[in-house]
Amino acid sequence: MTKKANDKDQNSVKDQVEENIDKAIDEVENEQAEKAEDNDNAEEEISETDKLKEEVQKEKDKFLRLFAEFENFKKRTSKERLELFKTANQEVMIAMLPVLDDFDRALIEIRKTEDKNLLKGVELIHTKFSETLKNKGLEPVEVNKGDAFDADIHEAITQIPAPSDDLRGKIVDVVEQGYKLGERIIRYPKVVTGK
Predict the structure, then answer these.
(1) Does 84 share its domain with 95?
(2) Range of the domain at 114
């Protein structure tokens, strides 16, 4: 082979090697670019997934708060409804209290007479009336002479000198009986206290 042909072969081999090297470099660069793109897509997918998870968590939190608020609302309205049922007839009971007081005064006066049949008849009516009111939730507030005065339970209408030292600051007399409907006092007992 001649030198020219030899140089030509070497150039052609050299060109082929350079071409192959360029192809290999291009392939490596393309692979790296694809990997970088895949990583970017993966990061975007991860960040999108994180965003979606965060949104779902926020929605769950909103739902739980709303559910808790609704449960509290149900409990509150249920409690209010029960309280309303307990005290629904409060106005009627308050209107009946003067009638009950009149019965009590009538019994005291009838006991002074000699007529036992009249006393028995009024006692039966009074008992029946009292039991009916009691069945509807009306109860007397227990107050006795000598009890300690409590402004939360009693209504003092006057103060008199105590008949004895042990009645100072205590209840001397009960002028008007107090009543409660369920746990609520609808009429406070009117009392006289000793000073």
Answers:
(1) no
(2) 89-136
In the chain, the number of structural domains is: 3
DSSP track, 33-58: HHHHHHHHHHHHHHHHHHHHHHHHHH
Chain CA centroid to CA 66, Å = 14
Q: Last residue of a domain, which of 88, 113, 128?
A: 88
Query: Does one domain contain both 78 and 126?
Result: no
- pTM value is 0.54
- Between 61 and 38, the higher pLDDT residue: 61
Residue range 58-109, pLDDT digits in tens:
999 998 999 999 999 999 999 888 877 766 778 888 999 999 999 899 998 9
Q: Please tell me which residue, 153 or 14, carries the higher pLDDT value.
A: 153
117, 136, 155: which is the final residue of a domain?
Answer: 136
CA angle (6, 8, 13) in 5-degree steps: 95
Q: Cα separation of 184 and 27, whole Å?
A: 90
DSSP result, 97-141: HHHHHHHHHHHHHHTTSS-HHHHHHHHHHHHHHHHHHHHTTEEE-
